[in-house]
Structure formats: C-alpha cells, structure tokens
Design a protein that fits this description.
With about 575 residues, the protein is of the alpha+beta class. Helix content is about 45%, strand content about 20%.
C-alpha cells in the first residue's frame, strides 16, 4: 500500500505505515531534495498519526481561507510593484504552509494555532545569483528584517544541493513573513531534487565523486555493507536522514556540513577515518577544547592528533554523525575480537597445561579447527574469540580432548586452585574495557588478592578475592589471575572519612593527598548537627601500598576519627 490507499487498512497498520513514512521516507525525500514529495508524505502521515490535531488545523485554516488568499495576493502585488519599480524581472509566488509544518511549529513554540502568525510563505524567482541578492536588498529596504532570521544557502548549499536565500521580515500588518529567493535552476532542483540535477547535467562530463548528494548516497551504501546488523544500520541511517546542519571550516577554509550538536570527533571522521581514530584534541577558533565540545556554525576546527592514540568506546556517547558512530563501532569490534582471541588462547593454553597437554601441538595438528566446528566456529580464531569473550569456558571446548579421569570434580577444583603455582595465573595488566574489566561490586586494585571470572558475552571480569559475590560464581568459569607491573595505570578508590568539624580539616586532607601524588577525582563533604564531619573522596590509586600509606597519614590528622575504604560502584 502507498500513503494514498491507507484508508483501506485497519487502524494499526495505518499507524505503522504512517510512522515509517514520517521517520524514513519523508526525510529521505528531503535528503534527495524532492520537496513536493516530502511535503505530501508528511501531511498524509500526519493525518493518520495525529487525527485530532490534523482535523483541528485543517478546519481552522479552511475557515480563514478567503482572508488568507486575499492577504497572499496583497503581499504578492506589493512585492511585484517594488521589483518593477527597480526594473527587476522576478516571479513572485505565495502559498499557505503545509499542515504538518504548521503542527511542528506549534509543538516547537508550544503555542496553539492562533499563536502561529506566519502561516504563509512567499517565493521570489529570478534569472541569476546576482539578482537573488538584489531582490534580498530590495525586500529588506521596504520590509523590516527580523534579526537572526536570515540564511544564505546559496553560499553554503545544503547537502541535498538545495540553494536559496531565506529571510523573515515584518509584513504590511505587523505579521511575520517568510520569503525564499532563488534562481529558476535552484527552484527546479529544490522541487525535483536529484532528478532535476541529472537533467541539468545532461550533455556534460559527470563525475559522481565530485557531487555531494552522490557522496551521501555512497556513504549510505558503504554503511550498509559495513554494518551487518540491519537494526544498527537503520539507526545510523535515520541519524543522517534529516539533520539540522551546521557549517564548520577546516584551517584551509574547506567547509564541512555536520548535524547540530556535532563534536570535533564528528568533524575529524568527516575528513578521514584515520584522523578520527588518532584525534586527541581540537583547536576551535584557536582555543584548545575537549573532544566532546559542541561545535557551532562558522567554527574553524584544527584537529590535534597522536599517532599512537586509539578511539574510545566512550565517544559513542556524544558523537552525532552516522559515519563517526559506524567507524568507532567497527574499531571497537575489531579490537574486541583481537583481544578476545588473545585472551581465549591464553585461557585454553592454561587449561591444557594443567593436564600436561601441548597447546602448540594441538594447533599444528588442526585439532582446534575440529573442536571449533563442534561449536559452529568456522576458524580457529573464531573458537579462541568465543572463549575469550566468555561464550564458552576452556573446559567446555576441551571436554572431548581431556581424559575423563582428569576432569576435576568440585572438591578437586577447590584443592587444585589452592595448590596452583603463580606461573599458572593469567597476568592482568591495566584494563581496557574490551574483554578484561574490573568488577564494580568490589573495585580491586593492584596488591589486592584477586580472581577472574569469565562472564558470558563480556570476557574476563576481575574480582577481589574477598568479594561478597564470590560464592555466587560457577567454579568452571573462575580463572586464577595475577597483577601485572603497569606502574602508569591508576584505579578508582572511594574513601569515607569521619572526623570533627574543625576549620582546615579539608585542607589538611587535600595536602596529604597531594604529598602522596594522589589525584582527587571527586569529593563530597557534609556537616552533621553534632559538629561531626563526613567526607567521601574518590581518588586514583596505583597500588594497595600507596592506599595504605594515604590512609595511615590521614588517620594521624587532628580531628579524624576513622578512614574506611568503600567497596561497590564507583
């Protein structure tokens, strides 16, 4: 069914198709520059999605049609007269705004229909670009322009090739009037979009790679090829369909169109994937700003890079463009797979060593490939990644190659874990959040006794040995681990400090932190009615010995009653 035959369907199907049309097909028509189709689709979808509002608007507008038509004719004649006076040959057209456009304005401005004063729009069509600006100057000479309501889409065309001058002025009776000024060619492309563009290109050398609209279509196709998940593709597709654009400049003066709210990371990925991957900061108008800063039209952005830098999964929380989201997700997935393969190999090798079996011999003989096929893995790397990502335990995949007599029972597992040498433990160095992460329930730091637990679908989670959740875990998924020697890595720790409410207490605590080279991430303090003070400090610690030293030093401060390390979510 198309939108003109929805009346033959039941109400649920009408709403589903109308929602799909408003979310995808109308914005797609806009992105391709076919405005008349976009307008009709929006109005038809509006009728089925918001029937009460649709009926209210169309009824009120119908009642005012006679007065509105007279007003449109009056303004048109006024504009034509002024243009003729200055010998400017221009076509002048007036129209009522579309229903869905009016409804959207009511929602945005939070007003009723009676509060919307610009229900009409006017269009001026001239022969060339020079006359566009001449017409604009004449309009502003006899209609007062509204500050901040002028857009030059001729100098800065929209990504769908749309070009026009837009201005809002105060009309003859004090009401707001929206006027668009464009050439005949611009008008044709604005109404018919990409089809008109092809028509104007007939007989000329045509290079799709030089055309913005084809560049966007090409990115959509590439995105579909890169994202195997259809749902994920549709999410990224919708982002790029109908953004409110901003125009940002490179230091060389090249302009990049980005959606409103875009960050320097979006800008970097818009230029090149590797520039996005390596960006560490950005100079915006000469000032160094954080990567999550929001860019504005007219900003000049200079991306700062580091050849050793890698993207962060956290960037997905603030980037706006589908290109940036797609490239970051691709990198994260590739990195997760690589880390999962390495972790899986290590876990399997450690399990085999317990039974005096050779990992390298099994790898050379192709035995791992046969094992993988039993679990529907096509390659050995897929098998290792599955184990590293926690889909299966080493014991599960090695079940058929380890002799039955050597498989440990519950009691034997506990005894062997106690007797196991340190050489059998997996070395944990830092944390990247890819396939190795620290449990939020106990927040272990170097120096704490720890154990690892293979979490299905999340890789290896590190817990403190005295974690209250230890007894809830399956022994087959528990892995012995040990700390690496990563001196540059720090870990979040929370301290609860109780003491008397005296002047200078907070300053003394901060001095102790600074003297021990401890960074304070966050601090909260409160005073109780009994003149006691309580403070929660979130700090960064490199090793348990550093934490113990800090705690002992704080305990010696005058007025401090207790210092406690807090467990749980940081």
């Amino acid at each position: 069914h198309n939108m003109q035959t929805l009346n033959f369907l039941n109400s649920d199907r009408q709403v589903d198709i109308a929602r799909e049309t408003l979310d995808i097909y109308a914005p797609l028509a806009h992105r391709l520059g076919i405005e008349w189709i976009k307008g009709e689709l929006e109005d038809e979808a509006f009728k089925y999605l918001y029937p009460l509002e649709y009926k209210t608007i169309i009824t009120k507008i119908a009642k005012q049609k006679k007065e509105r038509d007279a007003y449109i004719n009056e303004v048109m004649e006024l504009l034509k007269g002024k243009f003729e006076q200055f010998k400017l040959h221009a076509g002048v057209f007036g129209r009522a705004k579309r229903l869905y456009s009016i409804y959207r304005k009511m929602i945005q401005e939070k007003v009723e229909l009676d509060g919307i004063y610009d229900l009409t729009a006017f269009r001026v069509i001239v022969d060339n670009v020079k006359e566009c600006y001449l017409a604009l100057g004449l309009i502003h000479s006899f209609f007062r322009p509204i500050p901040g309501k002028f857009s030059d889409h001729i100098a800065l065309p929209k990504p769908n090739m749309y070009q026009s001058l837009h201005t809002k002025v105060i009309g003859p009776y004090g009401e707001k009037i929206e006027i668009q000024i464009r050439t005949h060619e611009m008008h044709k492309i604005a109404e018919e979009g990409i089809a008109a563009h092809w028509k104007y290109k007939e007989g000329k050398v045509f290079n799709p790679k030089e055309d913005k609209i084809f560049g966007w279509l090409r990115r959509v196709i590439e995105s579909q090829q890169e994202l195997k998940d259809n749902k994920e593709f549709m999410e990224t597709f919708k982002i790029d369909l109908f953004p409110d654009e901003i125009y940002v400049f490179t230091p060389r003066g090249d302009v990049k169109e980005l959606p409103k709210g875009a960050s320097p990371v979006d800008f970097a990925y818009a230029i090149h994937t590797q520039l996005g991957h390596k960006c560490v900061g950005a100079k915006v108008n000469g000032k160094l700003l954080p990567l999550r800063s929001e860019l504005k039209s007219g900003d000049i952005v200079d991306i700062q890079t580091n050849p050793t830098h890698k993207p962060s999964k956290d960037w997905l929380g603030f980037v706006k463009t589908s290109r940036a989201k797609t490239k970051i997700r691709q990198w994260v997935k590739a990195e997760q797979r690589e880390r999962s393969i390495e972790l899986g190999k290590t876990l399997i090798e450690k399990e085999l060593s317990k039974h005096d079996m050779s990992f390298s011999k099994m790898l050379k003989s192709g035995e791992f490939l046969n094992i993988g096929k039993n679990f529907s893995f096509e390659t050995v790397e897929d098998l290792f990644a599955g184990v590293g990502y926690g889909l299966y335990t080493p014991l599960q995949v090695l079940g058929k190659v380890i002799p039955e007599s050597e498989k440990p029972g519950k009691l034997k597992q506990i005894i062997s874990s106690i007797r196991r040498s340190k050489d059998s433990a997996i070395n944990i160095q830092g944390v990247d959040g890819m396939v190795v992460q620290f449990a939020k329930c106990c927040n272990p730091i170097p120096g704490d006794k720890i154990f690892g637990f293979i979490t299905r679908g999340r890789g290896l989670t590190i817990h403190a040995a005295d974690c209250p959740n230890v007894h809830t875990y399956d022994d087959q998924r528990s892995i012995e681990v040990s700390w690496g020697l990563d001196k540059d890595f720090t870990y979040p720790v929370k301290l609860k400090i109780l003491g008397s409410d005296r002047k200078g207490l907070l300053s003394d605590i901060s001095t102790i932190m600074a003297s021990n080279k401890v960074n304070i991430i966050n601090a909260q303090a409160m005073t109780n009615p009994d003149r006691t003070a309580a403070g929660i400090y979130e700090i960064e610690i490199g090793h348990i010995s550093q934490l113990q030293k800090v705690i002992k030093s704080i305990q010696k401060i005058k007025g401090v009653q207790s210092v406690e390390r807090m467990r749980g979510t940081i």
